[in-house]
Amino acid sequence: MGKGMDICLAVDASDASPHDRLEARFVRCLVCQAGIVLAGRKPAAVFGFRMPLDDAARCPTSMRRLLVKTLIWFYAWHLRRFGVRVSLLGWREGRAMLLVWRPRCVQSLLSAAGAHEFLAKNRLPSRCGALMGVLRRRLRAYYNDRTPFPHEIGFVLGYPIEDVDGFMSDGGQGARACGRWKVYGDVDEALRRFKELEREELRIKRLYSEGMPLRGLLRMATA
After folding, report:
1. Could you tell me the pTM of the whole model?
2. Distance in angstroms (rounded) separating the CA atoms of residues 163 and 159
3. Which of 7, 63, 124, 159 could form a disulfide linkage to 59, CB 3.0–4.6 angstroms apart?
């Protein structure tokens, strides 16, 4: 376990063990869903990882979850040394729901215009560590079916504050454009950002498919 840090696991080996296949799927999911966070191009991402069905049928749910939790813990430990945090939020429809973020990138959001007003209005602290702690608790409550989805998470996902505010006010009904998020403010800037993020995602996926391991993607954040 952990070979994905230094070896590209983009292609399944036909003779790989179920544990190796699971690790390869997990690393690919991490790259596809949070590659731009790993590379320092986005503050945070929320996504789910599902264990492959062919392997899942071979062991009970409790064992499948233990295997996935062990993988998450192991990679979270490695990624922490590169300034990336990983947190398991809960389970939804057989998927492990994850929050991946870079504290340095989240910290930079706190100086944005309107940030402190937005945080105060949504009962969120203005210090990075405390902010992520509260958001993790709210997301866990949601994935445990205790509360509605906390749309204020959009702030640390890198969405413009006015767009997060607008969506929280009317649920997207009054959006002026739609892409990676619902746009209420500067449409041209949002469309530019959508294209920029798409280009970055495609580039990171291409680099991974061509053989760059996780360690290489992580080093892009300091290049």
Report:
1. 0.91
2. 7
3. 63
Q: What is the pLDDT along the chain (223 residues), one digit of tens a residue?
A: 777 788 877 765 556 677 788 888 999 999 999 999 999 999 999 999 987 666 544 666 677 788 899 999 999 999 999 999 999 999 998 899 999 999 999 999 999 989 999 999 999 999 999 999 999 999 999 999 999 999 999 999 999 999 999 999 998 899 999 999 999 999 999 999 999 999 999 999 999 999 999 999 999 887 5
Domain of residue 20, residue span: 3-158
Give me the number of domains the chain comprises: 1
Tokens of 218: 């992580």
- 207, part of any domain: no
Q: What are the DSSP calls for the chain, one per residue?
A: --GGGTS---S--TT--HHHHHHHHHHHHHHHHHHHHHTTSSSEEEEEEE--HHHHTTS-HHHHHHHHHHHHHHHHHHHHTTT-EEEEEEEETTEEEEEEE-HHHHHHHTTSTTHHHHHHHTT--SSHHHHHHHHHHHHHHHHTTSS---GGGGGTTT--HHHHHHHHHHTTTT-SEESSSEESS-HHHHHHHHHHHHHHHHHHHHHHHTT--HHHHHHGGG-
